[in-house]
């Protein structure tokens, strides 16, 4: 593959997307599979076997366009008629939230690099301008489809269930009258109209805020004026009107009152009462709009004496990033749209014209309504088997349980609160525990885990919290509870300069008969009790001596100075995860060529790292079967003749967010399996501290292999990555019968184990 320097091109010289077939650009690839196969054949050397041949250009899918394909899969969940109605509304909200973050970070970064001339051709072979234009086309197509699903499908079906999402003209006179009183009492006092004239410059429009653009006419002078009214973000997105016509906040309406309830977007209520804000002025027109801004953070850590203060300063600056997208409601006049484009500094390409209401993240409010018949059946997590079977009249003694066996946890099927959370709470209260060390990437300020660390510090234990305050979009929360920990006497450190600490580790040092013993937790997900109920993750509780030494060394490396640390059961980025995985991929190639059992099975969130993908291509060329389950971004080109015909890629989305990472290798009949925090991305392998732990317990190995087999089976509902770079959903078999939902299967299996105890 050519180096970045060889591929670098200044943005002004980029070719346009017309140079590519429309289909290849939509699939996020520079070459079709046929063209790629031809290139492989043309440059082959007869003296070398396929797995030693040069690999062709164009062998990677584009990272950004692959992400859009992932969000399309989220949208397809919203389109799925077999899902409960409120869950479909929830997936519409997730799609909208995902796209916001994509524009705030990825598109904003791409635009910044193009503007500064620092953009280079992507590993996919697409130029920055081609990627940006491809994003614009695909994002607009998906947003229009997203709006249609809501307007033409989900909203009418909600109305049939008594949940009417209405526009102002759809309301009866009685409802409008009562909403006017509600406006005067609950909304009007909070609003701040901002005029634009020579004495009042165009106001700053904060990112993701919902706004009204208002055109006014002064009756005396007949002069037209522009004003902006921001919809206060602390007010509910929808106002509920119950069957009697009484308006209230959605959270205040009881389940018995939901029948025939109406929900009105708050911006429409404001729009109908603008005369209260501009008395004496004629309201000519008003339109809703919304701006997305660059909200990625840039903190020069080497120049910051105090990373915490530097980050706090950057968070203030974030609110004033340049606009990267403008959403406007259909029907907006050309004059108002031109004014917004000019004042916000966006291009025509950045404008999304969509049906009202804008910002369908507000459907989260609708999803939260107390209507269980319109949601996924309730699932109550069970306590992990090796924790639940400990005989005791008191709550489970975690230290006894962990000494007996390592414990593999699978959340949210197995409870986080009765495992990881309780382990740390028990450690904080145990007088024999001398020290607790833990990484915290994302958690909540009211987390029982944060409380446990504070309790431990108050009890005189040595407590170290390695807080990653640069966890994107959680920075402010993390700063708040980091200070709370510091004030309680917890030793709070912020990791290594230049590296985010993303590994999920907890270490408890306990004084026992015979000496000190270390109890450890290594996981794939954050120590966040709230997200643990919705994220699918794995974890291991162990007191294995090697793991205890590994975590001690890693924490010392993170809080002090230990650059040459070596590990027993851990692979740790940025030093050893990429090399460790590639070494094992190459071992599978050698085993396959020697006639031994060889296969590779991965489950992760994203696959982008070119070096690892190239190793997988060579494994495929050598005849090794590679099966991958990738939830999100995937730069792999699967099923391409001569390159990756032995690579099979699936993607699974469901009620839980698939978040666990598993890396498994046949190893000639002795499976070598790792779980941990790292995805196959540059940021994970080069710019973060990540950890993978080798699974040694044979029963746990089999459970993980069973999980991989279920996820990859043709009888399981999933999306398949096709040869041409597109994803197709496989939801039914040849007879039209639904395929198995892997998450439902695991729920049933977990319940079954509980019933068999």
In short:
With 757 residues, the chain is an alpha/beta fold. The protein has three domains: 63-374, polyphosphate kinase like (2-Layer Sandwich); 385-559, Endonuclease Chain A (Endonuclease, Chain A), CATH 3.30.870; 570-756, Endonuclease Chain A (Endonuclease, Chain A, 2-Layer Sandwich), CATH 3.30.870.10.
Secondary structure category: alpha/beta
* General shape: globular
Q: Helix count, per DSSP?
A: 23
Strand percentage lies at: 15-25%
CATH homologous superfamily label of the largest domain: Polyphosphate kinase middle domain
Any idea what the radius of gyration is?
28 Å
Q: Would you count the extended β strands for me? A: 28
Secondary structure layout plus pairing:
Elements: H1 4-7, H2 22-26, H3 33-42, H4 63-79, H5 85-115, H6 128-160, E1 163-165, H7 173-187, E2 193-196, E3 210-217, E4 224-230, E5 238-241, E6 247-248, E7 261-265, H8 266-271, H9 274-277, E8 282-293, H10 307-318, E9 323-329, H11 334-344, E10 351-354, H12 363-367, H13 385-388, H14 398-404, E11 407-411, H15 417-429, E12 433-440, H16 448-458, E13 462-467, H17 475-487, E14 491-493, E15 500-501, E16 504-512, E17 515-523, E18 535-542, H18 545-559, E19 570-573, H19 577-593, E20 599-604, H20 610-621, E21 625-630, E22 647-651, E23 657-658, E24 662-665, E25 672-676, H21 682-686, E26 688-694, H22 698-712, E27 718-721, E28 727-730, H23 742-756
Parallel strand pairs: 1-7, 9-10, 12-13, 13-14, 15-26, 18-23, 20-21, 21-22
Antiparallel strand pairs: 2-4, 3-4, 3-8, 5-6, 5-7, 8-9, 11-18, 12-16, 16-17, 17-18, 19-26, 20-24, 22-27, 24-25, 25-26, 27-28
Helix pairs in contact: 4-5, 4-6, 5-6, 15-16, 19-20
């Amino acid at each position: 593959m050519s180096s970045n320097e060889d591929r670098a091109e200044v943005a002004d010289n980029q070719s346009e997307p017309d140079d590519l077939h429309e289909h290849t650009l939509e699939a996020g690839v520079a070459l079709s599979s046929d063209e790629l196969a031809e290139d492989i054949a043309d440059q082959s050397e007869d003296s070398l076997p396929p797995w030693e041949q040069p690999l062709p250009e164009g062998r990677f899918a584009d990272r950004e366009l692959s992400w859009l394909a992932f969000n399309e899969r989220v949208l397809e969940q919203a389109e799925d008629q077999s899902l409960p109605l409120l869950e479909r509304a929830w997936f519409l909200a997730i799609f909208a939230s995902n796209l916001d973050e994509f524009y705030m970070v990825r598109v904003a970064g791409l635009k910044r690099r193009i503007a500064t001339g620092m953009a280079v051709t992507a590993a996919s072979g697409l130029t920055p301008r081609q990627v940006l234009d491809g994003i614009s086309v695909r994002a607009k197509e998906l947003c229009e489809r997203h709006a249609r699903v809501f307007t033409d499908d989900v909203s009418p079906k909600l109305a049939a269930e008594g949940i009417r999402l209405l526009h102002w003209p759809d309301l009866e006179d009685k409802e409008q009258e009562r909403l006017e009183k509600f406006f005067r009492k609950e909304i009007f006092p909070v609003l701040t109209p901002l005029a634009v004239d020579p004495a009042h410059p165009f106001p700053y429009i904060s990112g993701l805020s919902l706004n009204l653009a208002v055109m006014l006419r002064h009756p005396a002078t007949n002069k037209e004026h522009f004003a902006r009214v921001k919809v206060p973000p602390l007010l509910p997105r929808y106002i509920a009107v119950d069957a009697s016509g009484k308006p209230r906040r959605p959270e205040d309406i009881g389940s018995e009152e939901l029948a025939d309830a109406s929900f009105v977007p708050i911006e429409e209520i404001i729009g109908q009462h603008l005369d209260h804000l501009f008395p004496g002025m004629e309201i000519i027109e008003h339109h809703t709009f919304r701006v997305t801004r660059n909200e990625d953070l840039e903190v020069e850590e080497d120049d910051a004496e105090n990373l915490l203060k530097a980050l706090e300063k950057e968070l203030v600056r974030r609110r004033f990033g340049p606009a990267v997208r403008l959403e406007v409601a259909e029907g907006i006049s050309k004059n108002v749209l031109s004014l917004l484009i000019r004042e916000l500094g966006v291009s025509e390409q950045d404008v999304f014209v969509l049906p009202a209401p804008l910002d369908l993240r507000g459907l989260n409010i609708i999803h939260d309504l107390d209507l269980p018949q319109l949601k996924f059946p309730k699932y109550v997590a069970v306590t992990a088997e090796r924790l639940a079977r400990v005989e005791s009249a008191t709550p489970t003694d975690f230290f006894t349980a962990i000494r007996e066996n390592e414990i593999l946890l699978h959340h949210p099927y197995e409870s986080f609160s009765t495992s990881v959370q309780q382990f740390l709470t028990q450690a904080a209260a145990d007088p024999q525990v001398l020290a607790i060390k833990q990484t915290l990437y994302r958690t909540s300020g009211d987390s029982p885990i944060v409380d446990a660390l504070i309790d431990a510090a108050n009890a005189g234990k040595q407590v170290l919290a390695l807080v990653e305050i640069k966890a994107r979009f959680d920075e402010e929360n993390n700063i708040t509870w980091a200070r709370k920990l510091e004030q309680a006497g917890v030793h709070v450190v912020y990791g290594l300069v230049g590296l985010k600490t993303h590994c999920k580790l907890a270490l408890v040092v306990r004084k026992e008969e015979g000496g000190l013993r270390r109890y450890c937790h290594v996981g794939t997900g954050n120590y966040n009790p709230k997200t643990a109920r919705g994220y699918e993750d794995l974890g291991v509780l162990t007191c294995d001596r090697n793991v205890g030494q590994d975590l001690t060394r890693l924490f010392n490396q993170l809080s002090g100075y230990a650059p040459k640390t070596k590990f027993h059961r851990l692979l740790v980025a940025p030093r050893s995860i990429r090399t460790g995985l590639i070494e094992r991929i190459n071992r599978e190639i050698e085993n396959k060529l020697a006639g031994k059992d060889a296969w590779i099975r991965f489950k992760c969130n994203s696959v982008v790292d070119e070096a690892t993908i190239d190793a997988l291509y060579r494994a495929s060329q050598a005849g090794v079967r590679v099966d991958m389950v990738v939830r999100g971004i995937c730069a792999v080109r699967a099923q391409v003749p001569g390159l990756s015909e032995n690579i099979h890629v699936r993607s699974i989305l469901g009620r839980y967010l698939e978040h666990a990472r598993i890396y498994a290798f046949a190893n000639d009949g002795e499976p070598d399996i790792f779980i941990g925090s790292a995805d196959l991305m540059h940021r994970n392998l080069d710019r973060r501290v990540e950890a993978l732990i080798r699974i040694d317990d044979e029963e746990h190995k089999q459970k993980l292999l069973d999980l991989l087999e279920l996820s990859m089976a043709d009888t399981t509902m999933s999306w398949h990555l096709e040869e041409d770079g597109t994803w197709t959903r496989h939801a039914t078999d040849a007879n039209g019968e639904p395929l198995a939902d892997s998450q439902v299967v695991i729920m049933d299996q977990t319940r079954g184990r509980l019933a068999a105890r």
